[in-house]
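User: Show me a protein chain along with its predicted structure.
Assistant: Here is one chain, sequence first, then structure tokens.
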Amino acid sequence: MNKILIVAAHPDDEMLGMGGTILKHVNNKDAVSILFLGDGITSRDINADIEPRRRQAKKVAELLQAKIAGLEQFPDNRFDSVSLLDIVKKIEPVIARIKPNIIYTHHMGDLNIDHRLTAQSVLTACRPQPGFCVKKILGFEVLSSTEWQAKDSSHCFCPTEYTDISKFIEKKIEILKKAYGDELRQFPHPRSAQGVKILAQYRGMEVGYKYAEAFQLIRNLND
């Protein structure tokens, strides 16, 4: 059994980026925990009530049969206004408690500043030491962020691993609609139900699956 930790900047990133893979891990009896770092909403209104967003994240975890490892409240789209060390210190105790062997987080080249700093914080928290539990770190893509970044070699998402989610794509979209429906947009916006399915179909087509989620390997330690 693998111990999986997903470190996401905002509630909904986990579903958009790897909802099908989470479902597959749970189906395979892996232990899945999710750490959310940001409130996910105050960039729209600094006085916004963050509780509905927190309830959405909890509902998704329940539907996925995953555990919430933390619901932090760093300011939405303003992670650069706080110390990187403060973010790292929210991640390190979770790693120490859960002892995951695999961590999923954001692609390091995303357009969204919170995504980039989340990935950087994960790497900082995972400085490799003898006997360290984390053996593999993977970056996922998030529609309306990853693909909107500048298309050059330093920013592009370049998948190195693919998960067949053909059995889970409909459940992924069902959960997105049920829990994060207010975050979905009308097609052709990429963050639409149709957009999510099209990306999964495209990633699957790249490697011979009907539907897939793609990841970029950040680190892999083979003992």
